[in-house]
Amino acid sequence: METLKVRIWRGDAAGGAFSAYEVPARENQTVLDVVSEIQREQEPALAYRFACRVGMCGSCAMEVNGRARWTCRTHVKRVAKPGEALTLRPLPHLPVIRDLATDMAPFFDKWARAKGSFQPKDAPDGAVPEDFAVVPPGSKPRREADAGIECIGCGVCYASCDVVGWNPDYLGPAALNRAWTLVNDVRDGARRARLDAVSGDAGCHSCHSTQSCTERCPKGLDPSSAIAGLKRSLFWDALLGRRG
Amino acid sequence: MRGQLHLWIAQRVTAAFLALAVAVHLVTIIIAVRGGLSAAEILARTRGSEAWLLFYAGFALAAGLHAAIGLRAIAAEWLGWRGRGLDIAWLGIGLLTALFGIRAAWGLYHG
Questions:
Q1: CB neighbours of residue A115 within 10 Å
Q2: What topology does CATH give the domain A3-102?
Q3: pLDDT classification of B40: cutoffs 50, 70, 90
C-alpha cells in the first residue's frame, strides 16, 4: 500500500518543530482522518481539536500546506498531489496551546468587543416581547443578514487575514461579519453602539478588501462584503450627521 | 476612534476628488502641449485665473492629505507606528506637503 508522508508541527507557546509521520494513503481520507489516525496509532500525545466531523462545529481548522482550512471536510487528494507530503501547522494569528490546538479565546473575545450579541429592541433586560417580530425574508436587511448568518466560528478567515497579522487589535473578518448581520437585524436595538465598536483602526477601517477571508471561508460566506457594508454605513451616518 | 473614522472618510473623499483631478490635469497637459507651449504661454493662461488656482490648490490639498493618511496606514502595519501623537504628525506632514503644492499654484496665479 502506498504511504502518505505527513509533517506535523509539534510544540507549545515557547516554540516547536516538525515531526514526520507516515500513514497508509487511502482513496478517500480527509486531513482530519489522517491526524486522527496518527494520534491513535502512532502519537497518542498529539494535541488537536475536533468535534462534529461534518463541517458544523468549526473546531478542526488547521493550516494545511500553507493554507488555513477546515480539516474534516478537506480531502487529502484535493490539497496534495499523489506522492506529495502533507504539512500541518496550528492556525496562524492565534496563541498555540499545544501542537495543532490553538487558543481561540482572543478570536471570540473580539466577537464580544464587536458587540456580536443580539440586543432585542422591544425587550430590554431580557424580557420576552409581547408579540413575534414580523421580518419579511425577502427584505433587503434580512437578505444582508442571512448572507452572513451561517458562520461556524472556525477561525479560518481570521487566520488568513493579513491585517490581523499586522495589527493584533484588529477585530478580524468573523467578528465584523457577525456585527454586520446584527446591524441588519431589524429586531436589534444596538446599532449605534455596535457601529461605534467596529469603527476605526481596530475595526472595519483597517480592512484593505484583499478578500482572503472570502476566498478561504469554508462556508462560502463573504466577510469582505460585510466589512464594506459596515464602512458604507459608518460613512453615510457620519456624513449625514447621524453619529453626533 | 471617531478621529480614525474621519481620517478614513478624508482619504475616501480625497481619492474620489483625485480620480477626477488627475484626469483633468493629464488631459490638460496633453491638449496644451500638442502645438508646443512655452512657459510664458502657460503663465499667460494661469495668471489671474481663479479657476485654475482653486483647482490646483484643491488638488494639492487632496494629494497631501491622501498620501499622508496612506503612509500612516503603511507605517502602522509595517513598522508598528501607532498613536495619537503620530496621527497629529501625519496630519502635519500632509498639510505641509499640501502647502508646497498650494504655494506652486499661487505662483502660477500671482507670479
A1: 22
A2: Ubiquitin-like (UB roll) (3.10.20)
A3: confident
Domain ranges of chain A: 3-102, 105-239
Fold of the B2-110 domain? 3 helical TM bundles of succinate and fumarate reductases (1.20.1300)
Q: Name the superfamily (CATH) of residues A105-239.
A: Alpha-helical ferredoxin (1.10.1060.10)
Task: Considering only residues A30 and A119, tell me which one the structure prediction assigns the higher pLDDT.
Answer: A30
Model pLDDT, residue A244: 47
pLDDT tens digit string along A115-173?
A: 999 988 877 777 777 788 899 999 999 999 999 999 999 999 999 999 999 999 999 99
Report the alpha-carbon distance of residue B76 to residue B4 in Å, rounded: 13
Helices (H), A114-203: 140-148, 156-160, 162-166, 173-183, 191-197
Residue in B12, B76, B82 closest to A235 by CB: B12
Q: CATH topology of A3-102 equal to that of A105-239?
A: no
Q: Do B5 and A166 touch (CB under 8 A)?
A: no
Which of A201, A209, A231 has the most B C-beta neighbours within 10 Å, making it the best mutation to test the interface with B?
Answer: A201
Interface predicted TM-score (ipTM): 0.84
Q: Could you give phi then psi for residue A22, rounded to 5 degrees? A: -135, 135
